[in-house]
Input
Amino acid sequence: MEFLNNIFVYIAQWIRETLATLGFTPVWVEVSMAVVYLVAILGVCTLAALFYVLWERKLAGYIQYRPGPNRLGPNGWFQTIADAIKLLTKEDVVPSEADKIVHLMAPVFIFVPTVLALAVIPFGKGMAAVDLNLGVFYLIAVTSLSTIPIFMGGWGSNNKYSLLGAMRAVAQMVSYEIPLVFSLLGVVLITGTLQLQGIVEAQSQVWFVLLQPIAFLIYIIAATAETNRAPFDLPEGESELTAGIYTEYSGMKWALFFLAEYCNLFIVSAMGVTMFLGGWQGPFLPGWVWFLIKTHLLFSFFIWIRWTFPRIRVDQLMHFGWKFLVPLSLANIFLTGIGVYIYKNGLGWW
Amino acid sequence: MKTQTYTVNFGPQHPSTHGVLRVVLELDGETCVGSKTHVGYLHRGIEKLMEDRTYPQVIPYTDRLDYLAGISNNLAYVQTVEKLMKIEVPERAEYIRVILAELMRIASHMVGIGIYIMDLGAVSAVFYPFIEREKILDLMCHITGARMTFNYMRIGGVAQDLHPDFIPALDKFIADFPRFIEDYHKLVDDNEIFKARTKNIGVVCAEKAMDYGLTGPNLRASGVKHDTRVINPYSIYDRFDFEIPVGETGDCYDRYVVRMREVEESFKIIKQAYKDLPEGPVMAKVPKLIKPPQGDVYHQTENPKGVLGCYVVSDGSPKPYRVHFRRPSFNNISIFDELFIGHKVADVVAILASFDFVLGEVDA
Output
């Protein structure tokens, strides 16, 4: 049990020791370990994207009374791989009037914040590539970067639909960043730490979803908007903007955007689990299994939302964000602050 | 800051123009400040083609007008010719016609509602109505052998009697359908996003609706109690007990509500007609060569999309001299240019979808 719980930690230790015995100097051991972590993160990233693309299609199929992909491999589980091969071999069409460099770099850059964010996610006890003591702050900082590649894609395509989608994306992501951050602040107030491991440890007795239900709700809404998923999929808005920012992308470039969407959703799910649902805490099973189960459930919840609700309109989106979510999240911080103050100072009176 | 408007070509290839409608939108940011609708991308010259066919040969062409409701178009045409030739249609044929026309109305509204909700972004909501529509198309297949282009009505009756499989299949449909209506109301009606997207969007007041010649659910949503089946009954519609649902404000939400309630009313008619279905022949005694007397005749039926008027001019030969259809979708979409102004891009899509038009009918 203990071994299973720490299996990945042991593997990392073993690699580190092997490298040392092979005669690497400490500096080179650190550099090599960074490469190992990077490969591991990219592996998680790719596997998560490949798995969840199919899982979403399956789940959407069940919701819509149809089987979903079920031809290739056992019960259709190889469908994404086949799709990826198809997309790789497709012709890459670049509009003649496009800003070629920006158009090319956008789908590459979109993975940068994703990989950066995964570096600090604690998949289990001691299982974070980098355990920053400013973890929450770092996460917020790097995930807000993902606005830029999306705007690059919309701008570089030189298409009116794309530009309209990009403008919507920027407005939306900047607006919903604020309630997202504020919803996390409540948790930080309670724990008094920005370190993700510390926040998970603090939930050994009670999950923060019970102490911060409003914050959790705000987090779910804001995270859906941050990842541009329905009902907040305005930048893409198929029925309005054909494909919004992705209109002029085809082949593998489009696939990269597509995969990044799932990676980002995986990250916000993982972040929600870490901050509100007790992270890797849980009985019987190894921590990292618990973490994956919880992330999976939260991810499936996002999928369920997507395939149920209609899309909100752009002005309603702004009103909802600024006039409802931001004041609500501020009120939540205020109440949490009072609660924490009373808890810390007031308990002395009794 | 100096800003300028820009033009967006909305269609003819666009996911939510329901075919090949082209709307050139003048946008100020997200707001529509000007609009010009272009039609004609699907024009096949059906009316001209009909002039070179004999009267029965025209029937299949009517299937291709509003291809989501082929039977209803068949009905309008054959009744016009029957009116011209003064043919009495047997009772059983009339009942079969009504059952099929109302089934067709449900099928057409299922598509209209499903696509409407899908264009608002709720993709799953299109599948449930389409499942019901598929059941209806299966029913149709039992009788006519076709899913969409039926060519089932004949001048003087219907092509053949009901297939033995049809009655049990219809029984099953009648038993299952109310549950779908209930579920769908639960899914859509009180959804806050749906209400926010449709309430007070694309408001058409009763006066304007009549000025533009809107008909069908789009007119009734504005509060005008106009239904050809009631005010000018054709076939045997005067024998059934049903209501004309009307809306209040004439916004997108009302257009959804009216369609949903119309489906229920059609369901009521089907049940009544099915209960009274008499035995007997399904075809009147008509001459082998159909040669209506010289003259012209106009006849209107209530199609799912609105009032379908059919005008036939006969010169006494076996081929019609002129056939013209008053296609409801064509009149309905004439209001778009005025209605879009001042709305957001997303609302334009909502309005387009809420009018439930079919380009096959617009362009003929």
Observations:
- Chain A has 16 helices and no strands.
- Chain A has one domain: 2-345.
- Chain A has a mean pLDDT of 84.
- The two ends of chain A are 42 Å apart (CA to CA).
